[in-house]
Amino acid sequence: MEPAREAEEPPGSPALPAEEPQGAQPAGPPPGDGALPAAAGRGRGRRGAGPKGPAGRAVRGRGRRAPGRRGGEEGGRAARRPRVTVDSSKAKTSLEALKISLRQLHWREYPFGRRLPCDIYWHGVSFHDNNIFSGQVNKFPGMTEMVRKVTLSRAVRTMQDLFPLEYNFYPRSWILPEELPLFVDEVHMMKDSDPSWKPTFIVKPDGGCQGDGIYLIKDPSDIRQTGSIQSRPAVVQEYICKPLLVDKLKFDIRLYVLLKSLEPLEIYIAKDGLSRFCTEPYQEPTLKNLHQVFMHLTNYSLNIHSGNFIHSDNVNTGSKRTFSSILCRLSSRGADVKKLWSDIISLVIKTIIALTPELKVYYQSDIPAGKPGPTCFQILGFDILLMKNLKPMLLEVNANPSMRIEHEQELSPGVFENVPSPVDEEVKVAVIRDTLRLMDPQNKKRKDIQSGALPCLSNCLCCLFPGHQGSHLCQDGPSQRLRNKCQTLEHVSEANEELLDIGPADGPEHETTRTLEPDLPSLCLKQVFPKYAKQFNYLRLVDRVAALFIRFLGVKGTTKLGPTGFRTFIRNCKLSNSNFSMACVDILYIDITRRWNSMGIDHKESGMCLQAFVEAFFCLAQKKYKSLPLHQQVTSLIDFCEYQLAVLDEKRRAACHADGPHLTPAAHPSLLSRTASASKLSDYRNHR
Ligand code: ADP
């Protein structure tokens, strides 16, 4: 896409640091300095002191670039490239990290928005913005809803029903209040069958964050029913009693994951994340210590209030560390960190596979196909707990992971200071910057033109293995300061780069990015999907059910299926017969829809939501293919429905063809999907 230009930036004008009309653009770094990935040379900034940025923040002490200083090859290259424009007016707490990233990329920031469209809109909270018709937004519609504790648990539960072994990385969970009786019964049954089982459970209010309202219990009868459970749903989950400890402390991992595209599915994982530590030595839960949050909950927002919290400038120590430092430590103890990393990749891909079906329903509702609208991408924060045996367990997914790179310190009562947090900055700035590099609209254009990988110009090890940039430098590559930075990071990268299973560069985009931005480090985001698609595609059954659901939604812009749509689905897929009349179909629809709607998930629209449709679909599959395991029943029914719909599409097209003009598939897009239907037909026939 050609980025729109404003009148004040004529085509071909040199790419100087963005001068906002309002004069509020923060100072830019001198050439070369902009590429520094992290906190080099940053001091403490007392709140309120120093020049203010657009949001009234203290702006970092970097020198403004002298106009015209940017010369030579870089200036020439930048001058030829129209600069990518980014609207940061809604970036909220991610603003600081975003600004640093944009400076490093020499992209143009619009901190107060812009009359003309921007290439990228950076939102701090959610997708919703009615005025974006083009470009890219860093949020997906519906993501916030999808990762709420209850919705995530439901989505994972559906996958656990289909693939129990593959989805055993999520603790057994029950949704309150509707599953309270089930929870009580199941726990009693399990205790009866194994009297030595002394479980602990953790109760987490839906939509809560930062440990808000969370408590531990030993018995279902300890659930606090007083009012709140009814008004605020919650998830009760088996508590992982034997976490891996470091320095006798419980910790969790925050990993950053980029969902680059939903269709086709593209997922990237950041090579480094954060480890957040408890501040009291861990003991397995007993009635005496259940309430000790500094021992059991790893939330930064809680532990920061403990007197034991250690702020550290060193990535290897303190209450917040890089994940790579933990991996190095584990590796030095002889742990199989390669396996751990591959288990984490698998956990991330499977979780996103569980989320995509409903996300697609939200997406088609907010951005209907054929209407102008932006495309989306999103950085997600995965919270993962390692068990003692190094098995990673998913705790939750954050749609808005904190991108703050500083924290507040109270010097004396009422006097606060904003203190940079080098650990946060190192990880988060790299994640934002490299997300932007991957989403660079000009890369896409170049890729389209080149239609293939660009050979790396310098063709050296650091380009093939991103982790080696510190030890093997491109001849024509990074600035000296960046090299120094790379070398200081070497302890993080050297051993664990291999351990993190860093393979060759991640495809054409990566190559293009590196070739055009030699002063930036290699991407910290690693593609895992479609790279490992072959291993995981068999899990994407609910995606196919969602495609059927969306087909019958009818009116664009809805997320729920009406009774007529459901009947049409049954008729078109030939699922009704003498044993299963249309009256039975109606009863099935009413029963399931009423139950799901009574759970109070979404009252805005009436009708059958995707999860209810999935339940109805599973019922139909069980009826039709009795003796098979559930995932085979569902696969068989999906194949059957897709076949019936392909036959129907063929018939309709044949009828149109007889009446209308003759077109080649390439000349008419709708005929391209005919080829897809025809191939579904032949697949099904061959399969049978
Ligand atoms: P929140 O969104 O409020 O942070 P989380 O689900 O992340 O909620 O839980 C908060 C903390 O509680 C986690 O960071 C973790 O330390 C602990 N925790 C959550 N679930 C479990 C569990 N099943 N087993 C052990 N610890 C857990």
Mean pLDDT: 78
Strand fraction: 5-15%
Rg to the nearest angstrom? 27 Å
**Assembly category:** single chain
Shape by Cα distribution? globular
**What profile does the largest beta sheet have?**
8 strands, antiparallel
Low-confidence stretches: 1-78, 452-506, 662-675
Write the topology of this structure.
Layout: E1 45-46, H1 72-80, E2 85-90, H2 95-105, E3 108-110, E4 120-123, E5 136-137, H3 143-146, H4 149-162, E6 173-176, H5 180-193, E7 201-205, E8 215-217, H6 228-231, E9 234-238, E10 245-246, E11 249-261, E12 266-270, E13 274-277, H7 293-296, H8 300-303, E14 320-322, H9 323-332, H10 337-366, E15 375-376, E16 378-386, E17 392-398, E18 406-412, E19 415-420, H11 422-439, H12 441-450, H13 461-464, H14 480-488, H15 490-499, H16 507-516, E20 525-529, H17 533-536, H18 541-553, H19 563-572, H20 582-598, H21 610-624, H22 630-659, H23 669-687
Parallel strand pairs: 2-3, 2-4, 4-5, 5-15
Antiparallel strand pairs: 1-19, 6-9, 7-8, 7-9, 10-11, 11-12, 11-13, 11-16, 12-20, 13-14, 16-17, 18-19
Helix pairs in contact: 2-11, 9-15, 10-18, 12-16, 18-19, 18-21, 18-22, 19-20, 20-21, 21-22, 22-23
The structure holds adenosine-5'-diphosphate.
What's this model, at a glance?
By secondary structure, the chain is of the alpha+beta class. The chain has 23 helices and 20 strands.
